[in-house]
Amino acid sequence: MSSPRRTIAALLALSLATPSLGQSASDNVDPFIGTGGEGHTFPGAVAPFGMVQLSPDTDTSHVIRDSYKWAAGYRYTDPTIQGFSHTHFSGAGHSDLGDFLVMPAVGEAVALEPGDPAKPGSGYRSRFDHKDEVAKPGYYAVTLSDPGVRAEMTAGTRIGVHRYAFPAGKAAHLVIDLRSSLYNYPGKILWSSLRLAPDGTLSGARETRGWAPGRKLYFAMRFSAPLRDHAFVSTEKDVPYKGFQGPGRGSEALAEKSGRGLVARLDFGALTAPLEVKVAISSVDEAGAVANLDSEPGDFDAVCAKTRAAWDKALGMLAIDAPAPMKTSVATALYHTLLAPSVAGDADGRYRGPDDQVHQAKDFTFRSTFSLWDTFRAEHPLLTLVQPEKTNSDIVRSLLASRRYSPDGILPVWQFQGRETWTMIGYHAVPVIADAYLKGVGGFDAREALEAMVASASYAPYGGLGDYMKLGYVAIDREPEAASKTVEYAYDDWTIARMARAMGRKDIADTFDKRAANWRNSFDAKTGFVRARKSDGAFRVPFDPTAINYGSDYTEGNAWQYSWFVPQDQAGLVQAMGGDKASVAKLDAMFDYDNSKLDYSHAEDIAGLIGQYIHGNEPSHHVAYLYNYAGAPWRTQARLTQIVASQYKPTPDGLSGNDDLGQMSAWLVFTALGFYPVTPGSLEYVIGRPFVNRAALALPGGKTFTIIAEGLDDAHPYVGSVSLNGRPLARGFIRHGEIMAGGELRFVMQAGPNKAWATAPDNRPFSSSTVRQ
User: Which residues form the Glycosyl hydrolase family domain (predicted)?
Assistant: First the structure.
């Protein structure tokens, strides 16, 4: 008997070869970064912002016990692959999706259960070896050792294409499992259906009760070889659910089945060429999935080539020159920032909104997958630099469309496939919209946007907003995580004021400028920390600034992290902390804190600790840049060196925490360039230090903004001087308009700190209490 690998090699030599992956911007990307540790990324095939994320799911039997670690479906340390499903989050801190799992099988007897990962041959799952894996933007391949099948994946915007090279002479099969999911809720599949049309198209749907309740998704699937036989099997043992309408296509079918637990076996016989499987999805209906399938013609190689070209264009907006490890890390970070917000509307513009009804988008593409508590900080500001205005306009229009059809009349909080999860805090669609508007992004109704922002900030039932509007803070005896909510609401309010003032709405601006100062109501001058207050005005006791307990005073953090969240008025915070010297000392105390006697094992998101600085979670992301506001930018430079060295590397475990739909990655892209948007909405970026030798950002109108780090190496980590377009830059920030105008930002690096540069108050970044007109 010949070995499976030898048989595969012989077949592949006679069949379609692996697509050419010649040198291009895509070649600098390693999609395996973040697939180990707590990065929660996936290595599979996806187009820029694609609706389909076609990727392997490994030992998802663990999802029942620990869905957090398998939130992306794939963990690098797992030894088996269960199959390839079509929807995945990139770096989320919560699990769901994993829709419509496909797995090849060979031989006469086909298992319809995945089996035990520890018992080879007990089901349709298969062992694999990482040396047989290939992952590039838009392409993934692996050899499935047990059936001896070479599996390849590519994806378009709304489609995924599989290609399976089966061993010669063996009967080829596919298992389609509608029971598989990446969420551990009992009874998660409410209803599902399968339908085989006379033309050989397999379609179906399912409704799930997962992170987002009542989520409906449909698929359509076509094959490059005819079916010889098939079986639709129901494994349900409970009463059928009556609320789901099923396919509803109205035409004749060769076979149909519906129920809670469906799995299909598709038989193709012995094949002489690889089997291609093209799949499209839709949140609207099966007809939409079929139309999406038809909207992107071409075979595997054609789709792969088109998507690769799309990735080369998107990634080519930022050219980087750096040592190989840093170049890979930054290029991959940029790749991860271009995966979401993902397309969620069909090719004809229809989409399913938060009201669970179908709506029609006119002149824009509806997008979803909004992890706004994470991404308002750097992900969305980065997109305003590296993506066309149309992308950013579509994002804003999608947020407004969701609010238009929201049962509660407010903007999205954490949404995917049009469904709201109400996860995390704040109304952080507000700064995304304000920042885009202030940067000149058009294509949306600014009056409607401002109305939506004010409505979201005035909805009393949400997150203690009623008390916040009456008391000036969220009361901890009435609402959990009150300290965090107070300061986050205050920042969001400031962005409303900024946009309202730019639109000439002084009445709204004055109201929300006043609310933006509410952070002071939670700042305790005696302890120097932001704290939770009760409705009677007293701070809650006892108080431990290192305590992290979900559902208490702070959101995924403690007083050390949240006491620095005043991005709209960091100068005011420095003053409240006792001035420059006291603030620098407190920042140093945060980074240098001895955690040896603390146990944070109960808190999933607390990763990447440097003292009490937690880089693996978002509340800390701007903190290293705050030395600039206290007149010590060289301390920012030193901390950035420490963070980048310890929190990022070009390996599967190269992200210290969840990528959170691109936020961890956006932080690295900005920081590598030498600046960061501490305060989205201010139109300023705080200068840190660069980590690449040279970068060139392509801009509209054929302009280019170039960053040069003269003399940069490990021995020269400090900024000696900065110039903009050949003129010395004495300030520690750069304006958005200066970047968009094109030109050159040049750093001269040196071995020791320059303690004179950008220290004067007038040269410090924006703060509302010291605003420059």
Answer: 289-750
**Nearest-5° Cα angle at 765, 764 to 767:** 110
> Which residues, other chains included, contact 760 with Cβ-Cβ below 8 Å and sequence gap of 6+?
631, 730
What are the distances in angstroms from CA 510 to CA 431, 456, 504, 548? 17, 17, 11, 36
Distances (CA, A) of 501 to 323, 509, 619: 45, 5, 28
Q: How far is CA 310 from the centre of its chain?
A: 19
List CB contacts of 657: < 8 A, sequence separation 6 or more: 38, 39, 605, 607, 608, 614, 615, 616, 617, 664
- Whole-angstrom Cα distance, residue 50 to residue 42? 14
Measured N-to-C along each axis, helices 446-457 and 506-516 cross at an angle, to the nearest 10 degrees, of 40
In the numeric block, the tokens 């377009």 are attached to 725
- Residue 226 three-state SS: coil
Is there a contact between 448 and 502 (Cβ–Cβ < 8 Å)? no
State how far the Cα of 561 lies from the Cα of 267, in Å rounded to an integer.
56
pTM: 0.95
Supply 177's token pair: 């499992």
Domain ranges within the chain, ordered by starting residue:
34-309
- CA distances in angstroms from 630 to 577, 624, 635, listed in the order given: 10, 12, 10
CATH code, residues 34-309:
2.70.98.10
| Segments of 283-333 assigned E as strands | 318-321
Roughly what angle, to the nearest 10 degrees, separates helices 580-591 and 570-577?
90
User: Mean pLDDT in each 10-residue stretch from start to end of the chain (773 residues)?
Assistant: 36 38 81 95 98 93 69 94 97 92 95 92 95 98 98 98 97 96 79 95 94 94 97 78 47 87 96 98 98 98 98 97 97 98 98 97 97 98 97 98 96 96 96 98 97 98 98 97 98 98 98 98 97 97 90 92 98 97 98 94 86 95 98 98 97 95 98 98 98 97 97 98 98 98 98 98 95 54
Distance between CA atoms of 424 and 649, rounded to whole angstroms? 28
